[in-house]
């Protein structure tokens, strides 16, 4: 059983790392070279936002907020991350 749980945790880590890379790409595509400026623009702490770019787990409400800021659907944000 522990082996299966470890596999799930590893899959989650890979997923969130890919998601972090995706939100960083979206930020730079939106012409925000600074994560700090982007975090300020979306009213999120710089530290928290940078953690998300590094692959930290995030709530659904945060995912929805990031999708809305980039004017994309949640589906578009998550596409290809599995």
Automatic annotation (TrEMBL):
<dbReference type="Pfam" id="PF01381">
    <property type="entry name" value="HTH_3"/>
</dbReference>
<protein>
    <submittedName>
        <fullName>Helix-turn-helix transcriptional regulator</fullName>
    </submittedName>
</protein>
<dbReference type="GO" id="GO:0003677">
    <property type="term" value="F:DNA binding"/>
</dbReference>
<dbReference type="InterPro" id="IPR010982">
    <property type="entry name" value="Lambda_DNA-bd_dom_sf"/>
</dbReference>
<dbReference type="InterPro" id="IPR001387">
    <property type="entry name" value="Cro/C1-type_HTH"/>
</dbReference>
């Amino acid at each position: 059983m522990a082996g299966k749980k470890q596999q799930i945790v590893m899959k989650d880590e890979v997923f969130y790392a890919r998601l972090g890379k995706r939100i960083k790409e979206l930020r730079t595509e939106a012409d925000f070279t600074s994560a700090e400026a982007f975090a300020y623009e979306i009213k999120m702490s710089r530290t928290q936002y940078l953690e998300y770019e590094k692959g930290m787990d995030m709530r659904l409400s945060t995912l929805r907020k990031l999708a809305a800021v980039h004017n994309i659907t949640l589906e578009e944000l998550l596409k290809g991350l599995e």
